[in-house]
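User: Modeling request: complex.
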Amino acid sequence: MNLDSNIPSGPLEKKWESRRFDLKLVNPANKRKYNIIVVGTGLAGGSAAATLGELGYNVKAFCHNDSPRRAHSIAAQGGINAAKNYQGDGDSVFRLFYDTIKGGDFRAREANVYRLAEVSTNIIDQCVAQGVPFAREYGGYLANRSFGGAQVSRTFYARGQTGQQLLLGCYQALSRQVASGQVKMYPRTEMLDIVVVDGHARGIITRNLVTGKIERHAADAVVLATGGYGNVFYLSTNAKNCNVTAAFRAYKRGAAFANPCYTQIHPTCIPVSGDYQSKLTLMSESLRNDGRIWVPKKQGDTRAPGDIPESERDYYLERKYPSFGNLAPRDVASRAAKEACDDGRGVGPGGLGVYLDFADSIARLGEDAIRQRYGNLFHMYAKITGEDPYKSPMRIYPAVHYTMGGLWVDYHLMTNVPGLYAIGEANFSDHGANRLGASALMQGLADGYFVLPYTISDYLASQKPGSVDDQHAAFDACETDVRERVAKLLDINGKRTVDSFHRELGKIIWDECGMARNKAGLKQALQKIPALREEFWENVCVPGGTGETFNQSLEKAGRVADFMEFGEMMCRDALVREESCGGHLREEHQTADGEAKRDDENFCHATAWEFQGVDKAPKEHREPLEFENVELAVRSYK
Amino acid sequence: MRVTLHVWRQNGPDDKGQIVRYPLDDVSEHMSFLEMLDVLNETLIESGDEPVAFDHDCREGICGACSLMINGVAHGPQAGTTACQLHMRSFKDGDEIYIEPWRAKAFPVIKDLVVDRSAFDRIISAGGYVSVNTGSAQDANLVPIGKDDADEAFDYATCIGCGACVASCKNASAMLFVGAKFSHLEKLPQGQVEADRRATAMVEQMDIEGFGNCTNQYECQAVCPKEIKVDAIARLNRAFSRSTVKNG
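Assistant: Request completed. Predicted assembly structure:
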């Protein structure tokens, strides 16, 4: 397997510029001869499809929602980072690069991350031009706030709905291309397989979710922008329909999947309230600008928060990490919450919660100022819990939020399958073992607006347009596979619902491959998951008769079937990484005070897995990570 | 608690459809409304029936997928709240709850509670954007925008495209939806350049899709989960008249 990262030579700050000059171009008159498929139309896919359309390519864009405006990017709350240094507080491209590399615990590629920091500034310009209503100061200039893992204020925001506003900007740009005919949009359509001809990606097989019709689409290149795999845990902050299917199908057709064990557990989510719970809700990291996290000093303290005097509270982040305090990065803050709860000092039902307290900020700034900054988040919290966070502190607990792992891609964002690209959360490239807050929106839009549209021309220029049509034998074979799988799911007629399998899988993964992992637990998960998968294929119940109709149970079943295989790969990845880094904490590898202990000598690499068959272990490959511009250091926020 | 659901079941676009009664025991007040439907669906599947189809995704009130008419009110009894954020503590033991899809000519039913809202996408495609290509933007701080204008633009921009405004309007008018997008862009200098053209194009498309006209009942404002004000409609009407006068 060829895992050449294709990083340009030369100094870090010149790499992207020189590569852009070296990339082959497709001349404007020829662009319309090329067809590009974009699967997923959130921030990454939507921005890519819009930009490719503007450039003159023929684009077919697909999403499983009824409209691109509903992609899960919409739920991102806090903000988007950019190295604008509008605050004059010492920010720079290099500092954003450095913070991101360090935040990722030195497990991402230098060159990719530097490029991300470089184009971050263009994103803000582009979004403002589209009419994204970012927060502003009275003078009319853009406002910023701080996020975890940074000591500068570089996060641009639109109240607590930044993802929504950026996605709508991108959806509108996409809609403009749909109107011009340059992009053909296929909503309520799910990609079920990818067609590879002579080693190149040449199309996809889809299912129309309304009619159930299986269809073929041929193209000169395929871009996957299908998001992350957080829903393998069943309970996560992801939207209910987020899934790994497209990326996993690509993996089964030869694309390497990198670092699946790197998952981000977000420290501030609303705790689980019962067995019926269907998803978890995030409370934005931005709240930690003004909220203070604490638990009682005493174990089993059941007094109401207001009755616990200051001297009997443990503001544990401020205590343990005085220089970053409540703005410690996510993995660190989550682990500290778990530690406090494991120590019997958690609050609320079951002791699985910590306080996020705004009393001091409300006293200092007034309730109005807090409402202005976080009104919609407080409102959301009150609705879900029935408690008023202006009066008593929020109760929060970590939950699965984002996945740093994804399809392996090179510097051009191309997978090891030529012609197949992966962008946004679907790839593994920029966040290493932990993502910093407000960097997901940045990466999605960087990939879609400013990276892929350049790099894809280099590939297309070497390809004859329309070399394969959808009558090729490879499409026949692929379509047959898809049909057989759909029929098989519908034929099982077992006793258990899809959701009950999904919950059980999620619990295994959360227990053994969640906030802390160890060898014995992971080995156990590797026994349990295949057994559960076997039961799934014998005993799942997917009602609805034929597949040729609107059938939400069938959609879910296909996705859970993939999670059943994917979850195993995740645990395997966590097992072989015998070190702790970022969101991956192996209990065997920690310092005396519970911090992650990296092993740079043996694990300074990305692990990329190659599919060998459903019941066979995948083959492990390694891409060494080389650091020429930063020194590998112990990641300290103390 | 126990509730009795009366749910609209319709097998497909051509099916006539009917209300079906489902008693449900053991409902927790902490469940969201959609989690309560999940529980119903699990029992339906286990007893060999088809689950109730309904649109949902983020379940935190921002994607706009959920679209339930609950006891005759779009998104149910709580103001400023989508159905997915509604919790069963808003109901009481013994309640009868009627659940129906959005009903409008421009939103045909696909199945049960799922409707086709692609008309909204076509309206945005007609002009709900700023015509700017990627890469052609100037520095973001070059044009200062007053905080009040930016905040007001934001208030209009919070529309989630759920369609509650249409569902609650006796004319099935989409004026609040169109007005919100129009006003968001018109409040900002970047959006003013093509404002008149935008007003005309979006209103034309709205008519083509079969939405009705606005007769100032303000039902839309009352149910809007993002509490968007009908001022948006006035702004749109003003621009529409202006461009009609200008362009004849």
